[in-house]
C-alpha cells in the first residue's frame, strides 16, 4: 500500500466505526502557550481530554502533522527519526474504552492492511489484567506474544493518566536476534507501530489514583512506520513517503543512494527536512531567530548544508518543495495553493544562508590556522559548537574540512556544549510551563460565571498559585484569580489583557493581565500588593479604563494596517501575529522580501486617510 492509501484506509476505517474525521490541525498550537509546535496526535485535542471543552463528537480520528526536533542530529542516521511525521489516531472522550480500542486496532492491522498475525506482539502494563485478558482471551494472542513492561503507564503528573498497550511488528531475524533488543529495546527487529493509551485514572496531589468518571482513549500509529512495514522496507526513508524526494536530490547532486554512508545520510536529511519546511511554511511559520521561526530556520539551513555536502552548489530547495507538494497534495490540497509562496519564502532564506555559510567557512579557516600555529591537532569542542550554533555548521562538515588539513575535532567537548545548551532550553521551557499553569477548573460551574463589562463587587470563586488551588494569599504572592463576574477583557488577537485592581476588605490584588482558557473561562494574573486575600471573598473589580481605550485604538490600527498592506502588496499578505500595547502596536505579516520606501509611504497614506475619514 502507498502512504496516501494507508492514511485514507485508516481514516475511513474509523469513520465507519462512528468517528468524526477531522483534518490535521495546524502545526502551530492554538490557545496552548505551553507548546511551541504540535508534536503528537493528541496535542490539539487536550481540551477535550481534560473535559474543559465539549468535543464536536465523542469519537474522533485524525492524521495529525507533527514536528519534533529533540533528536534532529539522529535524522538520517537511524531508520525512524524524523523532524516531520504524521500520527494516525483514533480518540474516545468518555465513550468506548479498552475492548473496542483493542478490537479495532487488531481488525485494522489484520483485516484491512492484512499484516501477518504471527508477527504481531503487544506490551501491556503488568497490573493491567483487563488489557491482558482482552488480548489473550478475546483476540487470541498467545502468552508468548504478550509482554508486561513496567514503563507502559502514561502520566504527566496530576490529572488523567493510565496504562497503555503497544503493538509491535516482528521484522525478522535479519534485524537482529539479541534477546536484549526485544519489545521496548533499542533494536530494530521489533518495531512499535501503534500505541493504545487507556486514560482511566485521575492522579491526585499525593500521588494516589482514583478512577475517572469518564474514561478516554488516545492512540497513535506512525504513518511512516506503518508504510515501512507494509512496503517491506528496511527503514522509513525507502518508502514512497520519502524516496521520491531522495531521488530528486540524487538527480541534482549526481550522488546515488546506497553508494556511501555519508551520501545516504545527506539524502535522507534533505528528504526529511524538505517535508518539514514545506508544511511549516504552509501553516504560516516563517524563518526567524526565535520560537517556531527559529526551528524552521534551523531545519532549512541544515537541509542546505547537507546539500553542500553532496556537492549541490546552486539553490535547490524549490525542486524539493515541488516534489513534496506533488506527493502530499492528495491529503493536503492546500499545499497546491500555497506552493509558490512556500518556494519564495524558502528560496529567500536559502539565498541569505549562502553568505552566512561563507562567513562560517572563513571562521573555520581561522580556527584551523590558529591550531596549526599552536601545534595542536584537535579543534576545541566549544569552538566547533560555536560554528554549529552561530553559523549553522554541522560538526560533520567541520570534521570533514578539518580532516583535509590533518586535524580532528573534540567531539566530547562539542557534546558537552550541546548538552549545556539543551539544559538552558529545558529550564526555559520549564519556566514557560510554570507561568501558564492554572488550577483545575473542571469542578467549577461555568454557567454561574458571567462576563459583564462593569466595575463593581464580585466574588473570587477560585484562587490559585503555581497551578494549584489555594485558600488564601498574602502580600507579595503571585496568584491567578477567577471571578464570579469578570469585567476584564482577556488577551487575544495580539492585544494584551486588561489590568486593574481587585480590592477586598483585607487585601488588594494588582491585576497584571487577563487570559482565557481553551474552554472560554477568563482568569486574572496578578500579585497581592496589600494584606491578605481569600478564596470566596467579595472584592471590588476596577479595570484601568484609560489603558483599555488606548489598547482599543491601537487594535483598530492593526486592522487598518492589514487592509492597507493587502491593497499595496496584494492578497498574499497574511497576518502572522501582532502585539497591541497601550502606547504602540506591532503587526507581523508574511512577505518574503523588503518593502520599498514607496510602498511604505503608500501604506502610511492609506491608513492616515482612513483615520481622518473616521
Which keywords apply here?
nine-stranded mixed beta sheet; six-stranded antiparallel beta barrel; single chain; alpha+beta; 23% strand; 5 domains; globular; BirA Bifunctional Protein, domain 2
Please describe the biggest sheet, giving its number of strands, its sense, and whether it closes into a barrel: 9 strands, mixed
CATH class of the largest domain: Alpha Beta
- Count of the separate structural domains: 5
According to CATH, the fold-level topology of the largest domain is: BirA Bifunctional Protein, domain 2
Q: Work out the helicity level.
A: 25-40%
Query: Which structural category do the helix and sheet elements fall into?
Result: alpha+beta
Compute the number of helices: 15
Oligomer state of the chains in this structure: single chain
Q: Note poorly predicted spans.
A: none
CATH architecture of the largest domain: 2-Layer Sandwich
| Separation of the first and last Cα atoms | 61 Å
Overall average pLDDT: 89
Morphology? globular
CATH superfamily of the largest domain, called what? Bira Bifunctional Protein, Domain 2
Alpha carbon gyration radius? 27 Å
How much of the sequence is in beta strands?
A: 15-25%
- Give a count of the beta strands, DSSP E runs of length 2 or more: 21
Amino acid at each position: 500500500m502507498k502512504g496516501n492509501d494507508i492514511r485514507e484506509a485508516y481514516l475511513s476505517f474509523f469513520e465507519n466505526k462512528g468517528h468524526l474525521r477531522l483534518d490535521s490541525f495546524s502545526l502551530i498550537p492554538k490557545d496552548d502557550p505551553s507548546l511551541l509546535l504540535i508534536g503528537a496526535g493528541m496535542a490539539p485535542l487536550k481540551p477535550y481530554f481534560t473535559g474543559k471543552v465539549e468535543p464536536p463528537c465523542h469519537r474522533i480520528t485524525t492524521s495529525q502533522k507533527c514536528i519534533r526536533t529533540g533528536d534532529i542530529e539522529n535524522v538520517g542516521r537511524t531508520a525512524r527519526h524524523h523532524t516531520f511525521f504524521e500520527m494516525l489516531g483514533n480518540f474516545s472522550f468518555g465513550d468506548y474504552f479498552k475492548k473496542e480500542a483493542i478490537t479495532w486496532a487488531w481488525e485494522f492491522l489484520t483485516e484491512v492492511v492484512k499484516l501477518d498475525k504471527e508477527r504481531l506482539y503487544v506490551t501491556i502494563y503488568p497490573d493491567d489484567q483487563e488489557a491482558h485478558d482482552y488480548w489473550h482471551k478475546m483476540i487470541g494472542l498467545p502468552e508468548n506474544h504478550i509482554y508486561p513492561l513496567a514503563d507502559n503507564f502514561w502520566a504527566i503528573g496530576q490529572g488523567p493518566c493510565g496504562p497503555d498497550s503497544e503493538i509491535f511488528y516482528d521484522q525478522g531475524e535479519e534485524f537482529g536476534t539479541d534477546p536484549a533488543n526485544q519489545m521496548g529495546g533499542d533494536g530494530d527487529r521489533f518495531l512499535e507501530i501503534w500505541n493504545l493509551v487507556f486514560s482511566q485514572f485521575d492522579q491526585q496531589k499525593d500521588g494516589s489514583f482514583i478512577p475517572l468518571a469518564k474514561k478516554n482513549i488516545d492512540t497513535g500509529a506512525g504513518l511512516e512506520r506503518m508504510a515501512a512495514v507494509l512496503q517491506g522496507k528496511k527503514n522509513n526513508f525507502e518508502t514512497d513517503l520519502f524516496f521520491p524526494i531522495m531521488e530528486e536530490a540524487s538527480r541534482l547532486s549526481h550522488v546515488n543512494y546506497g553508494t556511501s554512508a555519508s551520501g545516504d545520510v545527506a539524502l535522507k536529511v534533505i528528504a526529511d527536512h524538505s517535508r518539514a519546511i514545506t508544511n511549516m511554511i504552509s501553516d504560516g511559520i516563517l524563518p526567524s531567530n526565535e520560537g517556531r521561526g527559529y526551528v524552521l530556520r534551523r531545519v532549512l539551513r541544515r537541509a542546505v548544508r547537507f546539500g553542500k555536502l553532496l556537492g549541490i552548489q546552486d539553490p535547490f530547495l524549490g525542486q524539493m518543495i515541488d516534489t513534496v507538494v506533488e506527493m502530499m497534495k492528495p491529503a493536503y490540497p492546500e499545499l497546491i495553493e500555497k506552493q509558490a509562496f512556500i518556494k519564495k519564502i524558502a528560496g529567500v532564506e536559502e539565498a541569505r544562508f549562502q553568505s552566512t555559510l561563507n562567513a562560517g567557512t572563513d571562521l573555520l579557516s581561522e580556527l584551523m590556522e590558529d591550531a596549526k600555529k599552536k601545534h595542536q591537532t584537535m579543534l576545541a569542542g566549544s569552538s566547533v559548537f560555536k560554528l554549529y550554533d552561530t553559523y549553522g555548521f554541522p560538526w560533520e562538515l567541520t570534521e570533514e574540512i578539518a580532516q583535509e588539513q590533518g586535524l580532528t575535532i573534540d567531539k566530547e567537548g562539542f557534546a558537552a556544549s550541546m548538552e549545556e545548551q539543551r539544559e538552558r532550553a529545558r529550564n526555559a521551557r520549564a519556566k514557560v510551563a510554570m507561568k501558564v499553569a492554572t488550577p483545575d477548573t473542571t469542578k467549577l460551574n461555568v454557567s454561574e460565571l458571567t462576563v459583564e463589562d462593569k466595575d463593581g463587587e464580585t466574588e473570587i470563586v477560585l484562587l490559585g498559585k503555581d497551578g494549584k488551588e489555594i485558600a488564601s494569599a498574602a502580600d507579595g504572592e503571585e496568584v491567578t484569580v477567577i471571578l464570579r463576574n469578570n469585567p476584564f477583557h482577556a488577551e487575544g488577537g495580539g492585544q494584551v489583557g486588561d489590568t486593574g485592581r481587585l480590592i477586598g476588605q483585607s487585601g488588594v490584588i494588582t491585576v497584571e493581565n487577563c487570559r482565557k482558557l481553551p474552554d472560554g473561562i477568563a482568569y486574572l494574573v496578578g500579585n497581592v500588593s496589600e494584606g491578605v486575600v481569600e478564596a470566596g471573598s467579595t472584592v471590588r473589580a476596577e479595570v484601568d479604563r484609560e489603558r483599555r481605550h488606548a489598547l482599543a485604538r491601537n487594535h483598530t490600527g492593526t486592522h487598518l494596517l492589514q487592509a492597507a498592506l493587502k491593497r499595496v502588496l496584494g492578497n498574499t499578505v497574511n497576518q502572522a501575529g501582532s502585539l497591541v500595547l497601550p502606547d504602540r502596536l506591532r503587526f507581523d505579516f508574511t512577505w518574503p522580501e523588503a518593502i520599498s520606501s514607496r510602498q511604505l509611504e503608500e501604506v502610511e497614506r492609506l491608513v492616515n486617510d482612513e483615520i481622518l475619514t473616521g
